[in-house]
Amino acid sequence: MVQNELYSSLSRPFSLLMIALVLGTISRQVVGFHATTASRFSMQLGSRNLITQLVSPRRISTNHNHGLLSTAADLTDEQKVEIEGKIKAKGDEIRVLKEEGAEKDAVAPLVQELLALKAQLDPSILETKKKKKPQQQQQPPKKKQKQQQQSNDDAESDFITAREVDYSKWYNDVIRVTGLAETSPVRGCMVIKPWGMSLWDKIRTELDTKIQEHGAENAYFPLLIPKSFLSKEAEHVDGFAKECAVVTHHRLTAGEGGLIADPEAELEDPLIIRPTSETMIWYMFRKWINSHRDLPLKVNQWANVMRWEMRTRPFLRTSEFLWQEGHTAHANREGAFEDAKTMMENYADLCESLLAMPVVQGVKSPSERFAGAEETFTIEALMQNGWALQSGTSHFLGQSFGKAFDVKFQDADGLEKDVWGTSWGVSTRLVGALIMTHSDDNGLVLPPPVAPVQVVIVPIPPKKNDEEGKIAMNKALDDLVDKLKALNIRVKVDDRDYVRNGAKYFEWERKGVPLRIELGPRDLKKNVCIFKYRAGEGLEDKVSINLDSAANAASEGLKVMHQKLFDAAKARLADGITQDVTYAEMKAALENDEASSYHGSGLYLVPWKCNAENEDKISSECKATIRCYPLEANEAGLFKGKKCFYSGEDATHMALFGRAF
Predict the structure, then answer these.
(1) DSSP letters of 592-644?
(2) E strand or H helix at 352
(3) For residue 92, what are the contacts with CB-CB under 8 A and spacing of at least 6?
(4) Side-chain half-sphere exposure of 527, counting CA atoms within 13 A
(5) In what helix (H) or strand (E) does residue 190 lie, and over which residues does it extend?
(6) What pLDDT is recorded for position 29?
(7) How far apart are CA 285 and CA 444, in angstroms?
(8) Residue 385 has what DSSP assignment?
(9) Residue 32 · residue 3 · CB < 8 Å
(10) Tally of CB atoms within 10 A around 489
(11) Do 657 and 604 form a contact (C-beta atoms < 8 A)?
């Protein structure tokens, strides 16, 4: 009777100190626990009373061979996932308080609660630390505070700031915790890590197919461009002059204080690290083009470029970035213009089919055109904070570069003529667009076509002595993997035995893997597995799927998820474009609209009289720019009969205004 009451009371939350004191009063024959041990145990726990009171009570085992207190291994996977959720929520609460300038005394108890929650998964956190050496105990208070702060920061390092708290920090946190990229020792440059590079690889592979179908062939051109080349096209050099990195010497030498540029090795014609390759490629076009039979000539290169940036954001704006740049030469204006427009359409299709990202297709205003172009086609995407992101451009160059580099051809009648040109490109900026279009407060959300891993299988292993169960599990896994691969689904089995299943779920969710499949011994007996999709309306819950049809179900489910992501983004784009507003209304909404704000004001489609001076005034007054003249609205003539919302003059275009990254 007394023993049963004791076990019942021990299941309720109260301090481990009280547990030890109670156990010290009962018979050691009842629980096999010596009173002297209990006393010593009590003394050890006394200094940790604050933390131990916060720890959820552990179960007491009635099996004497298993010891008194159970470990984290006794928790079910569901309990572990629940605890990890509490850890995340507590970390977010601490971060918000710190960002609001809360006092250290107000934050400290929450940090203790966070450690206590972590102790439920890793009891070693509560182990008594070794006594510090006297000189360490006497360190100055400021140094102690700095170390404590660093410890607190480390405890929070895996947390993602909520979008509503700070959208810009959320974006950087997602990149950091999902292992997409890191800053490098070189100012303004980033290191793209394997998971981030695999996203760019998927984009590159898909786009390269489209480019070759467009008739372009891949080539490669030098990284270094003579400065004199840039000077040949006046508008072009003006557009890039402030962003160019210049090589002035060809070797170093020892000098006072270390290595210096050798004064005797100065270059006569300094070299520019390519900001783009028009000048180099058109120099080569002059050698390759002689007759109309050589046209059209279309080349593409996958490369890195350098444009010196003062303020950078990972993937969106860095000094060095990866991209593809296509360059074409044509015999007539119509061929070149159509080539530029077609590539814009190819980029739009790539964004929708691969990235589930709808875009607005349009042309840039004269002020926003590419340096040296007669027309710039663009695709503009809307991010979750209401800002636009230019996601790809295609330029109709006219004859400017052909004339600058004296590229001529002989037509069918034997007449010598100047060629017409285009250039077009997208960059790793698309990775940033992907992140900000779909991801949430839990991490990345990847549309299935672009995901490096589309399905991750997390097996729950049978008991160690269940050899038949292990054989059955391995066979089921092999069969499922083979069926998924036969459907061209990229699949990974996460069978790491040193990582808890709950931690695996957490990791793959953060990385944005579209579908997680769980398979345990109980599932196997029922011939089922458990599906859990990363995102998509109506796909939030776990679903039990028959193992025999799991591969086909996954294939169809991934298509459904992609469509749902696209539909949600398309609805957000439509809702994010406001029409029929005055300039005063737009200005009031945008002048305080910052990148860190979540659910910003969005974009504004308004009647506009093309005027560069007024465009500059609007930019200075409310930081808004013309993202494009949307093709659909302008081809439909929606501006006709309307007055410019800024000048009151007859409108010449429908213009899409907004803040942009």
Answers:
(1) T--TT-SS---EEEEEE---HHHHHHHHHHH--EEEEEEHHHHHTTTTTT-B-
(2) helix 333-355
(3) 159, 161, 162, 165
(4) 3
(5) strand 190-192
(6) 38
(7) 43
(8) T
(9) no
(10) 19
(11) yes
The answer to whether the peptide bond before residue 296 is cis (omega within 30 degrees of 0) is: yes
> Could you tell me the two tokens for 440?
């949430």
Q: Which of 241-245, 317-321, 512-516 has the lowest mean pLDDT?
A: 241-245
Least confident of 2-6, 23-27, 48-52, 344-348: 48-52
Report the distance separating Cα 209 and Cα 218, nearest Å.
11
Max Cα distance, the chain (Å): 113
Q: Which residue has the tokens 């299943």?
A: 501
Tens of pLDDT, residues 63-107: 333 333 345 556 776 677 778 778 877 777 777 666 666 667 777
> Which residue in 624, 631, 635 sits closest to 645, CA to CA?
624
The rounded distance, in Å, linking the Cα atoms of 211 and 300 is 8
Stretch 272-282: mean pLDDT:
95
Nearest to 249 by CA among 238, 272, 268, 265: 265
Q: Is 57 exposed, middle or buried (0-12, 13-18, 19+ CB in 10 A)?
A: middle
Provide the 8-state DSSP code for 432: H
Rounded Cα–Cα distance for residues 386 and 660 (Å)? 9
Q: Can you tell me the distance from the alpha carbon of 173 to that of 159, in angstroms, rounded to the nearest whole number?
A: 8
Residue 113 has what pLDDT?
Answer: 81
Helix (H) or strand (E) holding 81: helix 77-99
**Lowest-confidence region among 176-185, 373-382, 522-531, 589-598:** 589-598
The pLDDT of residue 127 is: 55
Q: Per mean pLDDT, which range of 57-66, 566-575, 621-630 is the poorest?
A: 57-66
Whole-model pTM? Answer: 0.78
Distance CA 450, CA 199 (A): 6
Distance CA 306, CA 317 (A): 11
Structure tokens at 244: 């160019």
Cβ neighbours, 10 Å, residue 556:
12
Mean pLDDT over 309-322 rounds to 93
* 621 alpha-carbon distance from chain centroid: 31
